[in-house]
């Protein structure tokens, strides 16, 4: 809206609107601050105060905003991790989403990534199903910092929740760790009752074709057409991205033509 266009001068107004009595106003303020991102970094102390607000939705939005406004060189995780055992499952759900949001935007060596990844792995065992689901999906955003928690994901491959199994598959494939224990565990899900999980597993195994056939000879050949289209789409997208990125870097590094 117009306030976003004003930029930093609008921050006090947007902050006050977060606790407005009208839900629509609260939502607009949240959207505005989200769009401003790190330009709203000066509000971090105020947002931390809102973590104790009696309204769940206000607390949750403060969690998500802290994850998004904290500058890349700073550690956004401590305030969120302090709420990981909050008695309200709604707050723990926001915490997991906030951890994922912060991790997705950061490199693996950013401050706090290792500690936050350990907590995210811990939250895959939360009593609340939605917290577990978000944690399983969110671990992938911690990249190699989540590698020590592979056993947690292998356990989730056997979870009765379809969403948790699917999230564990996506993470294990995205991490690209060709560990001997990963490929057989994924292969077991080729018999999963859910077609979309079987498809995701097959496409992931195709990405690990060389290692997969060493560990389980003939595994890739046994897939038939399962996961083939999905694998090809991903491969073509990756090639197109790499081609566009190479052209972009070429333009950035090209020497200007000498004037005649």
Notes on the structure:
With about 260 residues, the chain is mainly alpha-helical. It contains 15 helices and no strands. The chain has helices at about 1-5, 10-15, 25-35, 45-50, 55-70, 75-80, 90-105, 115-125, 130-140, 150-155, 160-175, 180-190, 195-205, 210-215, 230-255. Helix 2 packs antiparallel against helix 3 (about 25-35), helix 10 packs antiparallel against helix 11 and helix 13 (about 195-205) packs across helix 15 (about 230-255). It starts with a helix and ends in a 7-residue tail after the last helix. The mean pLDDT is about 90.
List keywords for this structure.
single chain; 260 residues; mainly alpha
> How many helices?
15
The dominant shape is globular
Q: Which percent range describes the beta-strand content?
A: under 5%
Q: How much helix, percentage-wise, in residues?
A: 55-70%
Distance between the termini: 49 Å
Indicate the low-confidence ranges by residue numbers. Answer: none
The gist of it:
The chain is mainly alpha-helical and 260 residues long. 63% of the residues lie in helices and 0% in strands.
């Amino acid at each position: 809206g117009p306030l976003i266009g004003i930029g930093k001068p609008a921050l006090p107004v947007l902050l006050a609107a977060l606790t407005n009595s009208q839900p629509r106003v609260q939502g607009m303020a949240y959207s505005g601050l989200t769009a401003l991102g790190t330009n709203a970094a000066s509000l971090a102390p105020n947002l931390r105060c809102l973590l104790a607000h009696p309204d769940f939705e206000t607390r949750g939005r403060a969690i998500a905003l802290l994850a998004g406004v904290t500058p890349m060189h700073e550690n956004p995780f401590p305030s969120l991790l302090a709420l990981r055992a909050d008695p309200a499952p709604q707050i723990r759900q926001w915490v997991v989403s906030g951890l994922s949001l912060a991790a997705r935007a950061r490199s693996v060596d950013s401050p706090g990534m290792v500690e936050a990844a350990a907590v995210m792995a811990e939250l895959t065992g939360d009593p609340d199903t939605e917290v577990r689901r978000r944690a399983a999906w969110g671990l992938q955003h911690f990249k190699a910092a989540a590698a020590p928690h592979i056993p947690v994901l292998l356990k989730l491959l056997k979870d009765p929740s379809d969403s948790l199994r699917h999230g564990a598959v996506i993470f294990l494939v995205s991490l690209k760790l060709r560990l001997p224990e990963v490929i057989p565990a994924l292969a077991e899900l080729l018999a999963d009752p859910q077609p979309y999980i079987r498809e995701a597993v097959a496409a992931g195994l195709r990405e690990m074709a060389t290692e997969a056939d060493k560990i389980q000879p003939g595994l890739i050949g046994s897939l038939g057409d399962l996961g083939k289209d999905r694998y090809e789409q991903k491969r073509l997208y990756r090639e197109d991205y790499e081609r566009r990125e190479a052209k972009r870097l070429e333009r950035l590094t090209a020497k200007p033509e000498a004037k005649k």
